Amino acid sequence: MAKTQVDTWQRFFGPLLAADEGADAELLSGLSLKALAQASRWRQLAPVAATLKGMQRSLQRQDPRLVQNLFGCCFKNPVGLAAGFDKNAEAAGIWHHFGFGFAELGTVTALAQAGNPKPRLFRLAKEQAALNRMGFNNQGAAAVAKILERQRLDAVGHRPAILGLNLGKSKLVPLERAACDYAASLEQLAAFADYVVINVSSPNTPGLRQLQDETLLRQLVERLRCQPACPPLLVKIAPDLEDAAIAAVARLAYEEGLAAVIATNTSLDRFDLADRVLPQTGRCLKDEAGGLSGAPLRARALQVLRCLRANAGPQLPLIGVGGIDSAETAWERIAAGASLVQLYTGWIYRGPELVPWILEGLQQQLDFYGLSSIQAAVGSELPWQAGEC
Questions:
Q1: Does residue 388 fall inside a structural domain?
Q2: Contacts 24+ apart (CB under 8 A), 33-41
């Protein structure tokens, strides 16, 4: 986003995001995504292309030290958009213009579904957090495949940013048929994905988290790996798992050859916000369904990442997500063992400038420590060095 567009974002969206009340969170998200979807579809037209190029100049940070090759994918930088924003992959063609090295699209289910009743997305502005109980609302795998096809994306392996697809279980499908349901989505979408994420950790689909059980997850992974031309498979886990269950996922990832593990999804824990009242409903968080994201999740997401690293060893790539809203928190996650990090809630609150801020901060840390690549920082436990970043 060129400086003018960034200023517009801060001037228009800043006040809207500074309070819990006011414009509906899902409505704002939907309006933003509609504009991005149109930009992606018409990105070759001269006026749209010029605007996107301006954004790219302002927000991208090119540095060979930030490049990593992981599970057959070349990531231009380690900062990605987390799943949940671009649910139907409508803006798949333009996320690199925002500075992202990769974007994760979805969650997509085999069956189209409306999701849970509204309201289902809430701001907690003071805490820089959000509560969501969306319920995998999306148009379904077949429709998403058509959306991706219409955007005429570059071929896998030749894109300016890596695109992952996050797959979930359709709500109407019983747990015992989950593997077939995920496989139906993968069959429709595999050709479009640089990598695929098995989402078994959303708290908003009844029974879904049971698939994190080692036996059930192993069966699911084995079923998906049988699909023709299966992309690299990742799994995304919940922050609410016990250490023993996290260790089991790490063991399974090693034994089944998973490409990476993403830690973490949203949390059912309310941390110290149990009595925080949502103005929209008049109820306390402890009485509200849904997953908590943003800054309150940061410490727990870091703990889960450390537990994964301790059990998986240095060879399994990890992706850190949850409460990352600054260069310091991104560096902390990388130093703890994450090869890549993802943004969602922090990006919404802080705006498009967050990505270049993080990348510049990472560059400054590499300069300070004399490191030749971001990979050298992964798992290093090097502390953040405060400065201009």
A1: no
A2: 33/85, 33/86, 33/90, 33/91, 36/86, 36/90, 36/91, 36/94, 37/90, 37/91, 39/91, 39/94, 40/90, 40/91, 40/92, 40/93, 40/94, 40/151, 41/90, 41/93, 41/150, 41/151
Give the type of residue at 7: D
Answer for the pair 313, 332: CB distance below 8 angstroms, yes or no. Answer: no
**Domain count along the chain:** 1
Token pair 């969206």: residue: 13
Active site residues: 202
List, for residues 195-221, the tens digit of each pLDDT value. 999 999 999 999 999 999 999 999 999
- For residue 385, being part of any structural domain is answered with no
pTM: 0.95
In a domain, residue 389? The reply is no
Q: Which CATH number covers residue 226?
A: 3.20.20.70
How confident is the model over 241-289, as pLDDT tens digits? Answer: 999 999 999 999 999 999 999 999 999 999 999 999 999 999 999 999 9
In a domain, 166, yes or no: yes
Burial class, 218, CB count within 10 angstroms (exposed 0-12 / middle 13-18 / buried 19+): middle
> Which residues make Cβ contacts (< 8 Å) with residue 275, sequence separation at least 6?
284, 285, 286
Write down the pLDDT at residue 2. Answer: 46
Measuring CA to CA, which residue among 204, 314, 208 is closest to residue 266? 204
Residue 328 structural domain: 3-377
